[in-house]
Design brief:
The chain is of the alpha/beta class. Helix content is 44%, strand content 15%. It folds into 2 domains: 213 residues, Rossmann fold (3-Layer(aba) Sandwich), CATH 3.40.50.2000; 162 residues, Glycogen Phosphorylase B (Rossmann fold). The strands form 2 sheets. Strands 3-2-1-4-5-6-7 form a 7-stranded parallel beta sheet, sandwiched between helices.
Length: 403
Amino acid sequence: MFSENGAYLATQEKNNNIRIAWIIAGDEIAGVAQAVRGLTTAVRDMGITPVIVSLRSGRFSEYLRELGFDVWVLDVASLPVLRGGLLSKLRLQLKVRQATTVARPKLVECLRTLDVRALQVLWPNLMPLAATAAREIAVACFWEMSNAMGSYPLGANRWLIQRAIKQWNVTVFANSRYTAATLGGFPVEPILLYLGADEIRFQPGRKDSLSRSELKIPENATVLGIVARLESLKGQAVVLEAMAQLPEAYHNAHLLLLGGPVEGEFGDELRALAQRLGVADRLHLIGNVPDPERYYGAIDVAINAYLGAESFGLSVVEAMMMGKPVLVHALGGPAETVIDGVTGWHVHEPTVAGFRAGLIRALGDRKKWPAMGAAGRQRSLEHFSLSRQAKQYVEIVRKRLGS
């Protein structure tokens, strides 16, 4: 017993020497914020010391400070997010390079003070900044891909990024097989590291769960839930319209939306759409919440309706961890996490007709919901738990740093 404890303490001491800087923008929300919060908390509990380096002070950086993390703010300009078509992205890429050139000296100075052994980054627009700074101070760099790669003509962006990460010796984590495939495997092959849901935080039967009466939802309603930012690509409007077209037998279905901004343009569009469809009393806009786990007690079926290919979909495995069957657009990560007919249902066309058919199928399986929810909980514990993700991450980090 003493030798086992001695080995454990030696491992903890070795882990305690690993200080890793998470490079963030400071204003992260939704999935990226959840991913950073989850993994930093989990590896801290395992003995690794995460340090947060934020470009600017924001709600997320301050939140991490409140959680007890050491947070350093560079106070530099935010780097543009690559959006739009090819020409738009090329222009934004130039701005990213310019901002990176300005920010790098401050980041390097901060990192030398912190004496870290590695850098961790998620946003693709922050990856060049983190990678070049890591190379300058001779430490490792880990890029956890938060999104799948877009497609440029002739795969030019994939070739350029592969060339860069090879040159900078970046270790790449992909959050799904789909995400990995969008980057390709040569010359750098991404390591599959599924995101994990906190199995303690997301646990069925929570005593602090919110009741339907507190949410102003009838007790006899069938509640469909979507946890996502309010934006058209997340598919809330498509699901709302599909729900309104359900047969009369399912007119007790209600749609609960967790995510914001509720008072934004899209939120107004959803309310107007519900009014036109005659289901205004069955739409519930809650807004951004820090504790989505408290709302699952009121949800019967969780939905991920992203209209494109979701890189992973953390809300999907969080719902599974809460013992809820999940209806998903089966493209990208959700096609890997949800087993059709076992832990949920696949929709192959993200249209009103497609989700209407998916909802009819899901609502027709009501008697199977408890078994499907239990199967989802078991599957998430085996493959998509935060403890599993953290353990795999620590093993990879130690191997990389040891080499």
